[in-house]
Amino acid sequence: MTAAVFFGCAFIAFGPAFSLFIFTIAKDPLRVIILIAGKANEGLAAISEEESSPISVREMAYVAGLGFGIMSGAFSMINTLSDSLGPGTVGMFGDSQYYFITSALMTLALTLLHTFWGVVFFDGCERKRWWVIVAVLCLHLVVSGLSLLNPLYVGSVPPVYVIMLLMAVWAFFSSGGSLHNLSLLWTCRKSNAETSS
Amino acid sequence: MKDNCICVLMVCCVCNTPLHGLDFFVFLCFSDVNSNSVAQKIYVEVNNTVPCVRLLNATHQIGCQSSISGDTGVIHVLESEADLEWPLTKGPNPPYMILLESHLFTRSIMMKIKKESSRIAGVTVVVPNTSPSEFSPHTTCPNENTGVYSDTYGPHLAHCNTTVWNPLGNGLSYEEFDFPVFSLKEDKQCYYDHNRVVNGSAPQYPLCAMQLFSHMFAVTDTATCMRRNDVINFSINPEMVCDPLGDFNVWGSIRPYNRSQLGHRDNESVVMAAARLDSRAFFWDVSTGAEGSISGFVTLLAAAHALRDVTQVAPPTHNILFAFFQGEAFDYIGSSRMVYDMQNGKFVIDLDNVHSLLEIGQVKRLVDNFQSSATGANFSLVEPGVSQPLPPSSLQRFLRAQNIPGIVLADHRAAFNNKYYESYYDNADNLNLRYPPNMTAEEQLEFLTDTAMALTEVATVVARALYKQAGGDGTQVDNIKADSKTVTQMLFGFLVQANNSWFQALIPPELKDMLSDPPDFYVGVASSSPAKAKPLTRLVQFLLANLTGTATNLTQDQCQKPDDLPDESVQMYSYLWVQGTVPHNGTEKGPFCVRASVRLSQALSPAFDLGEYASRNYSTWTESRWKFIKARIFLVASRDLEMLTLGVGVAVLFSSLLVTYFISTKADVLFSSAREPASAAY
C-alpha cells in the first residue's frame, strides 16, 4: 500500500518493543545477550568472576519475554510489511482493507503480551504457584484462538487488548509493583512539582 | 494474521502467526502453508499480455515506455470519445489506466491521451473478436525514405506525392508514447465492482487499479543505443540495451550455385522472383500479414513448386532464383542486404547477373469472385501508365542500385486494397479464408478453399511467366500448373494452425516445437546463426526445399555429411533431413533426406556492418531490450487511510517512547516491594 502504510504499520507493530529495547535493554550488554539468546545464564555465570548470578530472575524474565515477543512479532509481521510496500492493498478477494493496520495492532499486542507472560510465568515458577502457569498457557490459547475470528476484527482486536491490559496489571504486581508505589510516584511528582514551583 | 491457523501451544506455526513455546519448536499446523499468501490476497497477475515495445531508427524512437517500477493507474473503461473527459480532466483519482475497446483505439483518442499524459498511467486495449471496417496503424507512405524515389530521383513520385499507397493508415505504429500500452483479454469485473461512476459522482475507495511494467532500456535513436551497447561491454555487468532487427532471407534456384564461388559469374543471367515474408502490427509480435505478405509468398512458393518438374524436363535458358525477403516492413532490411551483398561480391551472383525481377506483392484480390467451376485464368493483367510509381516493394531496392527490368504484381492500381495493412486484423478473415463448419483440423487442412483456388490461378500465371521470361520452351508452358492442394495446405498452416500433419512432415523431427500457434510474422531481432532463424523463416526454407528439391535415398548420417559421397556436394546443395510426407494412400514413408538448392542468407541491414547507425540509405531499425513485461490488477486504498495509518504509527512510537522513558526512570520507585533472594542463581 505504499511507503506511508509500511512505516505506519512498522511503527505500530514495533514501536513499543523498540522503545523498550532502547530504554531498558540497550544499556546493559548482558540484557542484550539474554534478549537474543534466552537461556544463556549458565554460560555467563561460568565466565564471570562473581559468585552470584549477574542477572536477577526478574530481569531475566522480562528480557526473555521481550525477546520472545520481538521474535514472534517479527515472524508474524515482516512478511506482511514487505507486501505493504507495494502499490496494492488487500481486498480483491473480499478481505477487509484494514488488514495491514489490524495485523500491526495484533502484533503490538502480542509483543507486549509475551513480555508480560514472561514476567508472570517466571514469577509463578519462582513461587511455585502452578495455577499461574496454567493460566498463562490458557491465555496463550485464548489469544491465538481469538485470531480465528478474523476478519471480524471487532471480535479479535479489542478482546486481545483487554487481555493485554489485564496482563499488564498482573505483571506489574508480580514484578514488585504495588498501589503504594504508584501513590508514592504520584506524591513524589507532586512534591517535586511543589518544591520546584 | 493467518486466519485459519489452528496452532497447538508449544508449537511454532510457520504460517504467518507463530505463537511461541518457551524453548522448543514443534511443527503442527493445520493451515495451508503458502509462501507469500499475503501477496496472493492483493495482486492478480494478468496473463497473456501483449505490450507495445520501443523501436528505434536513425532519427526517432517509436513505441511505448513505462517507468522502471511500473505505472499504476485507477482503471477506467472508456465508453466513447466524449468519456475521455473523465480521466483527462474531471476525474478525482488520477492517474488513470484507460481500458479501450478495440473500436475506440483510434488516432484521435490516442493523441488526446498523449497530450494529457500526466494524468494517464497507461492504456490497455481489449483483444477484439471481430475486425473493424478498416484499420491500419502503419503510415500512409510505407518505407518512403528507403525506396528508389527520392528528392533527386523522381521527386514528383517520391513521398507519395502522386499516389498515397496506404490512405487508411493512421500512423499509430510510428508514434512515440511515454506511457505503456498493452493488449489484454477482456476483464472488466473488477472495474464494475469498484470503479463505476454513478451519476457523475466519484466512486468510493478502495478502487481497482492496474500496474503495467514495460520498461525499455534504449532511448533516443539507434546511434545512441548502439554506442551504449559498446560502452556497456567494458563494464563488469554487460547488458545490451538494443538489438538490430533482422533475420534471414530464404533463396533457392532451379539450377544450383556453388556457394563457395561468390561475386560475378560470367555469362550467367538470372531471372529473379521475389516476395516478402514479414509484416508488423502496433503490438509486439502479433502480426499476421495475410493479405500484406502471406498471399504473396504462398503464391511464389506454389509457383516454384509448379516449375520443378518442367525445369527438369525442359530446362530454360536462364536460371530462375526465388528470393523471400525478411524485414521488408522496416525499410527493406532483407532486400537491401541482398543488394549490398551482390554489390560487394558476397552473394553467389551479382547485380549484373540479374536479368529481370518479378515481385509478387499483395495479390489477394487478383481473382475476385472466384468460381470454383471455372477453369483457366480468369483475370487479366493490366499495366498502369508510366506516371504511376512503383508501390513499396523489394524491387525498389534493386532499382536503387542498378537499372534492372522488373515487374511488381499487385491487385491494386493505385492505393492498396488492403484495409488492414500491417495491422493485427490482417488475418485469415481478411483473406476470406472460410471453412465449412464442423470440420476437424485435418479435414480443414485438406479442404480446397476459394482463396486457395484463386491464389493457385495466380501462381500458375506467375510460373508460366517466369518460365517464358527465362527462355523456356514455349510448348511446355501449358503443362505448368500450380497445385491447389499445396496452396490450401500452406494457407491453412500459416493462417489457421501451423501445427498440422503436413507441416510436421516437412521439417526435421527435432524441430516440431517450432510450430507454435499462431506463427508470428514480425521480423524480430537478428541472430547470428541460421539455426536460430525465426520459425517462419525456417518453415519457408523447408517448404521451398521440399517443393523444389528432390528426395534422396541418403541415410541420416549421410545427410549430415554428404561430401563423403561422390555425387553429392554440400557446396552446391543443402541437405535437409525431414520427417517425411505421408502420401495420399496413407502409408507412412518415414524420414528422408531432401536435397535442394535452397539457402539462407543473412538479412541484417548493411548499416550495422558498416557502423553507420545514422544512415539514410539503409534500414537502421533496432528493438530495445527490456527486463520483464507484465501486468497486474489490485485494489488501491485512499490516501486518507494511508496517512491515517502513518499518523497512528508515529503517535504510537512517540507515546511508547515517552511512557517507557518515564517508567524506566522511575523503575526503582515502582518495582521495589519484593525482596530479591541474593543467591538466586540459574
From TrEMBL, chain A:
Family matches, as InterPro entries: Aph-1
Subcellular location: Membrane
Sorted UniProt keywords: Membrane, Notch signaling pathway, Transmembrane, Transmembrane helix
Membrane-traversing stretches: 60-78, 98-122, 129-149, 161-182
Pfam families linked to this entry: Aph-1
Main subcellular location: membrane
Function summary: Potential subunit of the gamma-secretase complex, an endoprotease complex that catalyzes the intramembrane cleavage of integral proteins such as Notch receptors.
Protein name: Gamma-secretase subunit APH-1
Originating species: Esox lucius (Northern pike)
From TrEMBL, chain B:
First and last residue of the signal peptide: 1-21
Regions crossing the membrane: 643-663
Its membrane topology: Single-pass type I membrane protein
Listed GO biological process terms: Notch receptor processing; Notch signaling pathway; protein processing
Segments forming domain Nicastrin small lobe: 51-218
Predominant subcellular localization, coarse grouping: membrane
GO CC terms in record: plasma membrane
Entry annotated with the keyword Lipid metabolism: no
Stretches of the chain forming a coiled coil according to its record: none
InterPro entries, per the entry: Ncstrn_small, Nicastrin
Subcellular location: Membrane
UniProt superkingdom: Eukaryota
Keywords annotated in UniProt: Glycoprotein, Membrane, Notch signaling pathway, Signal, Transmembrane, Transmembrane helix
Keyword Transmembrane helix (UniProt): yes
Family: Belongs to the nicastrin family.
Name the UniProt record assigns to this protein: Nicastrin
Organism in which the protein naturally occurs: Esox lucius (Northern pike)
Lineage of origin: Eukaryota, Metazoa, Chordata, Craniata, Vertebrata
Gene: NCSTN
